[in-house]
Every structure is written in structure tokens, then in C-alpha cells.
Design goal:
ADH-like_N; 2 domains; alpha/beta; zinc; Rossmann fold; oxidoreductase; single chain; metal-binding; ADH_Zn_typ-1; Quinone Oxidoreductase, Chain A, domain 1
């Protein structure tokens, strides 16, 4: 491990609008040391997700010490804790980390090895950093929450409606649903986003501002057995409940601002379930290592050419100015694909 006691990082102390220069600032912090099952990773690239913007958003509180955000990274294992067995120094890894720990917007980060995967060998650092959070979310939503079989033969004739198919999670979910043999119906409202969703495997596109059931009926498709909501559960709830097939399942990753009526699923014996990819790390569940295995499986799919990264933009070097720009672009709501910040430097 490096003898340097300090590391570069991008941090915050107050939760401010992104146009404020002090909303995210360059910092010099102590380099941490790994213990237990932790890895110390030298971060090579970090991708920015909606969770970064949400956590950084203005709020009436301040941190006593600089807080480092960031929940998507690729890098090299620098050192390991005394109980770590899955990796050794020099290994190339990718991961999404934990919402309850210091993040990846730093030269070095501690992360539990049970939520870390081996970086796909066919990708560079930025391409790999674009994948973990969205892949974990999409994979868990489909296979853990919707209980979707990975065997195409089990899913013959079945369909899934993905609300927000052109988003960063939707782009991965569409690919994984295709691999599982489902017909994918995606929602989009702009030509650019519809084209992106089709490029990633959506068989049909409908407009998420119009009645889902009517549009699906016009396609000649049966009601979907599965619905994955990646955009405004509140806004789409009635539309989803109406479109769902009897005994179907709805999974959402978007929290609600208002109570919604689960009675709308009663006659259909429908199921509603949440997905949050931070759950396993946050509660250190008994199956926490499933994320290590999942990321390794995803890396294999990538290296076999069956799953593609959704990286579309890069910013370099890694500093507060570029991270603020990344947040600005994400907040615009117009981005397609993932933005990655890479290369520590001036």
C-alpha cells in the first residue's frame, strides 16, 4: 500500500444547489486502512447516478466533517483486511458500495468484499464503472423481486413492461429481460430515448404519458405478467394496476410522495414489491455475498458480448469542477446513458 497518509477527494459539508462552487469541493483526507472483510481500492473511475444528485440536493443540515459521495466505481485492490479471502492486492474490481459508508469520489475507498465483483476484462475503467449500481438494481429487480427465471424456456410467451426503459437502469433491465426470453415493452416519450431503448433490446415502445393497457392492446400483446417501474411510482400507479395481468407482479425502485391504493391489485391477486440495491449492504444480510456473485456473473456476460455498458460520456480529470458538471448534466433530465468521471489530477 502507498505510504501517503493523505488522499484527494471530492466532498461536501453543506447540501447546496449545484451551481454553488462550494456544493462539491476538492479535499485532502486521510487515506483509510482496511480491516475485517474490507478492501482498500484505488479508484480509477466513478460514474454518477440519480442517487448522487438526490443525496447532494439542498437540505437544511450540514456535516461536521467532509462527506464523500459516490456509488459506482472501478479500480484496483490496494490492500485487504485480515478476514478478506475473495481478493488480493492487484485485482481489478468494480462495485456500487454502500449508502451508509464513505463513497467512491476519492482516490481510495474502503468497501466490503462481499459486494465487489471482478471487473470485466473487456472493458476499460470508465466502461466498467458505468455498470455496477444499475446492473445490481436491474438484476435484483428482475430475479430477486419479480422472481423471474433466467431460463428463456420458462418465460416463453411472457412479457415485461419497463417504465423508463431508456434510463440507466432500464437499459440494463431491457438487456437482462431479453436474455431471459421475455418480450420487452418499454416506455419512452422522446425519439432519442425510444431509439436508445430499442438499441438495447426493447421489442415495443409505448408512451408513458398515455394509457398503458390501451397501447399494449393495440400492439396485439397480452397484458404483461411483470412490470418494472423506474420512474414516478405515484404518477404511474393507476396505469400500472390497470395494465398488469392477473396474478402479475409490479416492482418499483422509486419511492412515493403519496399513499397509493393497493386495493387496485386485489381482484387480480397482484403483487407489489420494492427494490433497493443498497439493502444487502445496509443491513449486512446473510446473503450479502450475492452481490459479489451477481457482479461476477454480469462481468462474464459482458466479456461474452451478451451485456453492454451504457457509458455515453466521460469527464476528466477527476476533480470538484468536473463532478459538479456531472451533477448538472444529470439534473437536467436530458441525459441518455451513463456519465463517468475519471483520472485524478489537477
Amino acid at each position: 500500500m502507498t505510504d501517503a497518509a493523505k488522499m484527494k477527494a471530492v466532498a461536501l459539508k453543506e447540501y447546496l444547489p449545484i451551481d454553488r462552487e462550494d456544493s462539491l469541493f476538492d479535499a485532502e483526507l486521510d487515506t483509510p486502512s482496511p480491516k475485517g472483510r474490507d478492501l482498500l481500492v484505488r479508484v480509477k473511475a466513478v460514474s454518477v447516478n440519480p442517487v448522487d444528485v438526490k443525496v447532494r440536493a439542498p437540505k437544511a443540515r450540514a456535516e461536521e466533517q467532509p462527506r464523500v459521495l459516490g456509488w459506482d466505481a472501478a479500480g484496483i485492490v490496494e490492500a485487504v483486511g485480515e478476514e478478506a479471502t475473495l481478493f488480493q492486492p492487484g485485482d481489478e474490481v468494480y462495485y456500487a458500495g454502500s449508502i451508509t459508508r464513505s463513497g467512491s469520489n476519492a482516490e481510495f475507498q474502503l468497501v466490503d468484499e462481499r459486494i465487489v465483483g471482478r471487473k470485466p476484462g473487456s472493458l476499460d475503467w470508465a466502461e466498467a464503472a458505468a455498470l455496477p449500481l444499475t446492473t445490481l438494481t436491474a438484476w435484483e429487480a428482475l430475479h430477486d423481486r419479480l422472481r423471474l427465471s433466467k431460463k428463456p424456456a420458462d418465460n416463453e410467451g411472457k412479457s415485461i413492461l419497463i417504465i423508463g426503459a431508456a434510463g440507466v437502469v432500464g437499459s440494463i433491465a431491457t438487456q437482462l429481460a431479453n436474455l431471459a426470453g421475455l418480450t420487452v415493452i418499454g416506455t419512452a416519450s422522446r425519439k432519442e430515448s425510444a431509439d436508445w431503448a430499442k438499441e438495447h433490446g426493447a421489442h415495443h415502445i409505448i408512451n408513458h404519458y398515455e394509457d398503458f393497457a390501451e397501447q399494449i392492446g393495440k400492439l396485439g400483446s397480452e397484458a404483461p405478467e411483470y412490470i418494472l417501474c423506474l420512474n414516478s411510482t405515484d404518477k404511474h400507479w393507476d396505469n400500472m394496476a390497470k395494465a398488469l395481468a392477473p396474478q402479475g407482479i409490479i416492482c418499483s425502485i422509486v419511492e412515493t410522495d403519496e399513499a397509493f391504493d393497493l386495493n387496485k391489485l386485489k381482484n387480480k391477486s397482484g403483487t407489489f414489491v420494492w427494490e433497493l440495491m443498497f439493502t444487502r449492504a445496509m443491513f449486512e444480510t446473510k446473503d450479502m455475498i450475492a452481490q459479489h456473485e451477481l457482479l461476477n456473473d454480469a462481468a462474464k456476460l459482458v466479456d461474452e458480448g451478451k451485456l453492454v455498458t451504457t457509458l455515453t460520456e466521460r469527464l476528466s480529470p477527476f476533480n470538484a469542477a468536473n463532478m459538479r458538471e456531472a451533477h448538472r448534466r444529470l439534473e437536467s433530465g436530458r441525459m441518455i446513458g451513463k456519465l463517468v468521471v475519471e483520472g485524478f489530477g489537477a
